[in-house]
Automatic annotation (TrEMBL):
EC id: 3.6.-.-
Taxonomy of the source species: Bacteria, Bacillati, Bacillota, Bacilli, Bacillales
Pfam family, one: NUDIX
Gene3D superfamilies: Nucleoside Triphosphate Pyrophosphohydrolase (3.90.79.10)
Protein name per its UniProtKB record: Nudix hydrolase
Residue ranges annotated for the Nudix hydrolase domain, each copy included: 29-172
Protein source organism: Paenibacillus polymyxa
Highest taxon of source: Bacteria
Enzyme kind, highest EC tier: hydrolase
Amino acid sequence: MTSELLDIYDDEDNPLGTASRQEAHAKGYWHHTFHCWLARDTSTGRRLLFQQRQDTKDTFPGCYDITAAGHLTSGEDMSQAARELEEELGIHVPFTYLTPLMTVRYESKGTAQGTSFWDREVSSVFGLLSNQPLEAYCLQQEEVAGLYEADLEQALALFEGHIPFIEAQGITSGPNPEKTRRLITPDQFVPHQAGYITSVCRALMELPSQ
């Protein structure tokens, strides 16, 4: 994980060169990332899919987060970064199938695995409507602890502060995946910038049904 080489940028997004992922997170270099949020339509409405990060992650281990996301390695463009869908979820999706939702800049500081981090990202955010059930995904055990889904309107209400928790159904990663149900609160998610997840939820509601 720490051997990834990233292109790094200054505060105005001018290139500065390259740095390892470990160095970028230690020194707070801006770098580019790919976010893709998945939703699916069911007989009871549209649902939001999100992953649980593995406990070994270098930032926000064990937290719930974007369905699939990752860093752009040095020289990589955004269309190539869509590989994260196949790596983390086991699905091959052409980049042209993704709907651009927004671009966000965000920085966070914290400690994980006994090491301090300063993560500064420029993230291109995409949406995808994929109607396959949770059991059809093949999760990357090293990165993803589980994949969960919850009612999209309820998720929006959660992050707008109207309800205290949502009920989510999920499947764990590993050689023997297990179905699970959890009550999830907003503070169990990676703390993205204010309004980010609510904006994503609203954008996913607007995706045309397949």
